[in-house]
Structure formats: C-alpha cells, structure tokens
Amino acid sequence: MDPPSSLKLLGSWADSHTHRVQLALKLKGLEFEYQEEDAINPSPALLLHNPVYKKVPVLLHSDRPVVESVVILQYIDETWADNPIMPADPFERAVARFWCHFAEDKLAPAVGAVFSSSGEGQKTAVDQVHDNLKLLERELRDGAFKGKRFFGGDKIGLLDIVLGCGSYWLAVFEEVMEVKLVDPGTFPVFHAWLKDFEEQNEVKETIPAIDKLLEYARGIRQMMLSLSNGTSTTAPAAAGTTSAINVAVDGRSG
Amino acid sequence: MAAVSATTGEVKLLGLWRSPYVTRVGIALNLKKVGYEFVQEEVQGQKSEILLKSNPVYKKIPVLIHQGKPVCESAIIVEYIDEIWTSEPPILPSHPFDRAVARFWVTYIDDKLLALVRTLVFGATEGTSKAEVADGGAEAFQLLEEAFAKCSHGKEYFGGDTIGYLDIALGCWLGWIKAVEDVSNIKFLDEKKVPLLVGWAERFLQNEAVKGTMLEADEYVQRVKNLSASAR
Q1: What global pTM score does this model have?
Q2: N or C: which end of chain A has fewer CB within 10 A?
Q3: Neighbouring residues of A215: CB distance < 8 A, sequence distance ≥ 6
Q4: Host H or E run for residue A64
Q5: What tens digit of pLDDT does each residue of B127-148 get?
Q6: How close, in Å, is residue A79 to chain B by CA atoms?
Q7: What are the pLDDT digits (tens) for A123-181?
C-alpha cells in the first residue's frame, strides 16, 4: 500500500487549469494523489475546500486547501524551492504575472468565445484571438521575451505553464470549428514556442491525447448546436455545457 | 514623503486618486516610505504618450515606472513594491500558505467589487434587480468578514499588526463603497452583520500609510451622483 501523500489534487481531466497544477508538480518532482471531479456534480471535498467558487483545481497540502491555479503555482514554487518556476528578478516576475493576467483576462475568454459562438459572433471572436496573439507574438519577437526559448528562459516557467496549458485548445478548436487561430505564417514565434512546449516530456505526460480532446470538444459543440439550432451568434448553452467549456478553457464561469 | 532607497525621479506613479487601483499603489509606496513623482493622467479623452507607451496592452492606470521600466496591474505592482523595497513592514505575509490565502482573496475582491460598485452606480443590467445585486454584495462582505477573522488572528488588520496585501486590496475600495451606500441607501458595512470589517475599515482609513491616497468622502459621493445621473 502506498504511503499517504501530503499532496492531493482535485481536478478534471479536460481542464487546462488542472493541467497547469499537474505540470508544475511534475516539474518539481512532487508526488501527489489525484481525484477526478465532475464539474456538474462537485464532490463533498470540493465543496468543503472551495466553498467560494466550488471549482477545480484545488490543491490540498496536508489537508489545507490552495485555490486558483495561478495562486497554486506560486504556492508550489514558494514551498518547494528546487527547479524554480518564477523568475528570480522582481521586474521579470512582475512581467510574468502581467502576462498570466492577460492570458486569463483576455486570451482565454476570447478562445472560449470562438468555441461557443457561430456566424458573425464567431468571426469577431476569432479576430479577438488574433489581436491577443499579436500582442504575445510581439513580446516574444521584440519585447520582454526576445531571444528566449521559453517565456521562462531556458526552462519552462510560470507563464509557459499558464499559456501552454490551454493553448492546445487552439489546435482542437481549429479542427472542430474549422477556423484558423494560430497560423504559423502570422505567428511564427508563438507557434514555434508552442510546438517546443508541447514536446517537453513533462508536458506530454500531462496534456491528454489530442484525439480525446477533439472527441470531448466535438461532443460539447454538438450539444450546444442542437440546443440553439446553430442560428444564434452566441449560442445560449445550457448550464452543463457552459460549465464544461468554461472548466476546459477558463476554469470558472462567466 | 521621505525617500529611503529611491530618488524622486526614479519612481513615477501614473494615475488618478479616484481610482481604487491607484490608491493601492500609493498605500504600498507609503508603507515602504518610497518617494515618488505622481503623474496625473486624464484617462477620459486623449491618453498621454507615456501612458500609452508604458501600458500598451490595457492603456490603463495605475502604472508604476521604476528606473524607466513600467509595471502594470495594481496587485502585481504591490507585489513588485514588496519585493524591491524589502524594509519592514512586509506587505505580503511571510508563510507561503498565508500568501496563497491573501492572493486568493485579492482575486476574489477583483472579481466582485468593481462589478458591484459599477452595477449600483450605473444601474443593474437586464435580468438582475437592485435587490439581487445588494444581496450579492452582502454575501461578498460576509465572506470577507470570515476571511478577516481567519487572517487577522485577532489583530487589527488582515495582515496582522500592520496593513498588508489584503488590507490594501480591499481598503482601497472603502471610499467608493461608502459613497455607494450613501447614495443607494444600502448598507454593506453593517455593524450588526460584519462588525469586524466595520472596526477594520475605521482603523484602515485612519492609518498613516493611507493618507493622501484617497479622495475626501464627499468627493466619492459627488462622483457617484454624477455618474448615476449621466447613466440615465
């Protein structure tokens, strides 16, 4: 029988925020117990440890809960000092935190909107994704991350984890929705970074196989279209599908 | 303000004191006794060259410019200040778990309070009644009351003996909250429901580090009235 771990992660298999935490724990070489949560049917443990948002991921460390993926990542980094995720320099830390905020505030909702809309609404959403990617591309090419292999430098760091776990949805949505989101011609540096990120062993061990993600996304899209008859520009998804999409892309509702 | 490790030219804060986010940065700089140049930014109409250049992504205040480099987003700026100027008192708690708790509540505050104030000032959106918004606000304050009980350990502030990260993140909103209470006739800082927060709010507003970072109470009230009128 395995000794009880002091680390337990409540997560969902298709949730990018859960993947962030799993990846960070892997990068730190930390063992943890995993409990799969159903977004529509949260367990008593989830309700107990995240009463405010009732969402994954929740990291339990010696039964004390840490909630919100970016908060969890910093907690992990501050508790286990080896293989740092955050940059050492305060200005670089502020820059990393800023772009994490951007990823949650602008990019993720735009990507989610591509998935949950159709027609004109979808075109607008795709444009927004492109606008956001342009900002990242510029930063990678000429700005704060110029000349770096990863956002974290030579190794994967906080921002790689935050952006990377979620960017795989871009390829999935491209296929399911038949839209072009990350054209390597338009976003060469971002595209190259993403491919490099996805090749890392720890990342390959964390992110589910693309065909599983495709199947998942197709299923949700079908449900949404059948609910709305595909005519509205922003599909009014039922609570379950909205929740599922939001869990997958954004980690929270709204 | 006495400069400790910065000459006045080295630190600039772009902002307006009516923004609670700018207030956050002012308080943090005061706590660390950092001298700085305040650059008033008119955010309605034409934005200044320096604002557009230093925050091209959001074009918003506050922006802290330190040694020529811009730092954006108030919560991020406060953490930056704490990491650069390491004199006592520390702004973030020292233990990683306490830091995680503080960061969680700051995320929650950023999630709830702007929406709450906006809705009460400009009017509820379709499908939500003012009563529902008020209930949502009361619930938020109840959660923050419990958070205070847990974080303060019986002391004066969320941060303990001195103002900390969570005090700053919530306290910056007090001007707007009280003004909205006044104008809408809804009480969030209700002694019967959130007595700890009421006591905390009073102490916070009297704190030395908060001086000069907020408008006068009646200025917030006037702004709420003007904004509400223009929304109709």
Answers
A1: 0.92
A2: N
A3: none
A4: strand A64-67
A5: 678 888 899 999 999 999 999 9
A6: 6
A7: 999 999 999 999 999 999 999 999 999 999 999 999 999 999 989 999 999 999 899 99
**For residue A182, what is the DSSP state?**
-
Query: For the sheet containing A64-67, what is the strand order?
Result: A33-36, A7-11, A58-61, A64-67
pLDDT in tens, A153-164: 999 999 999 999
CB contact under 8 A, A71 and B107: yes
Which has the closest alpha carbon to A12: A32, A52, A39, A47? A39
**Chain-chain contact of B72 with A98 (C-beta, under 8 angstroms):** yes
d(CA B164, CA B168): 6
DSSP codes, chain B: ---SS--GGGEEEEE-TTSHHHHHHHHHHHHTT---EEEE---SSSPPHHHHHH-TTT--S-EEEETTEEEESHHHHHHHHHHH--PSSPSS-SSHHHHHHHHHHHHHHHHHHHHHHHHHHH-PPTT--HHHHHHHHHHHHHHHHHHHHHHHTTSSBTTBSS--HHHHHHHTTHHHHHHHHHHHT--SS-TTT-HHHHHHHHHHHH-GGGTTSS--HHHHHHHHHHHHHHH-
- For chain B, how far is it from start to end, CA to CA, in angstroms? 42
CB pairs under 8 A between A and B: 53
Q: Say yes or no: B99 contacts chain A, CB-CB below 8 A.
A: yes
Cα separation of B4 and A234, whole Å?
54
Yes or no, beta carbons of A72 and B100 under 8 Å apart = yes
Dihedral sign of CA atoms B61, B72, B133, B151 in order: negative
Question: What would the two tokens of residue A167 be?
Answer: 């960017």
Q: Which helix (H) or strand (E) holds A208?
A: none
The whole-angstrom distance between A235's CA and the closest CA on chain B is 18
